[in-house]
Design brief:
Number of strands: 3
Order of helices and strands: EHHEEH
Number of helices: 3
Strand order of the largest sheet: 1-3-2
Largest sheet: 3 strands, antiparallel
Distance between the termini: 18 Å
Helix content: 25-40%
Shape: globular
């Protein structure tokens, strides 16, 4: 856009990645960074297997990182906050792919309910 004076800017913001969040159990939180590392690796592996055009020479990085976050579940009544894993991806088009993989149980052998996967990257 432009300012009321007509000035325009093209801005490149660093370290802002598309993401989705998944609820985790207390056992996952106790496991800590080990769980997050397994989740990153499993998500990256699942996306690599689902990739239609895989690179044969260089392994692709699909998942940038994952962290624990605290938030309140949006649907239904919840009296307190819950713990989620926020998974950051490198490419916005992979958010819906990963959401489907997480929901289907192909990541870590269990089904995760993804949240915020429907929000477009530019609105996150």
């Amino acid at each position: 856009g432009s300012t009321p004076c007509g000035q325009k800017a093209c801005v490149h913001v660093h370290r802002v990645f598309p993401y989705l969040v998944v609820p985790v159990t207390e056992a996952d939180v106790v496991e800590g960074e080990s769980f997050l590392s397994k989740l990153r690796a499993a998500c990256n592996s699942a996306l690599a297997q689902a990739d239609q055009f895989p690179s044969k020479d260089v392994p692709k990085l699909y998942v940038f990182g994952a962290v624990f976050v605290r938030g309140r579940k949006f649907y239904g009544f919840h009296s307190g906050d819950s713990i989620f894993a926020k998974v950051y991806l490198c490419v916005p088009s992979n958010v819906l792919k990963l959401a489907g993989l997480l929901l289907s149980g192909l990541v870590m052998g269990r089904s995760f309910q993804p949240y915020e996967a429907h929000i477009p990257y530019l609105l996150q």
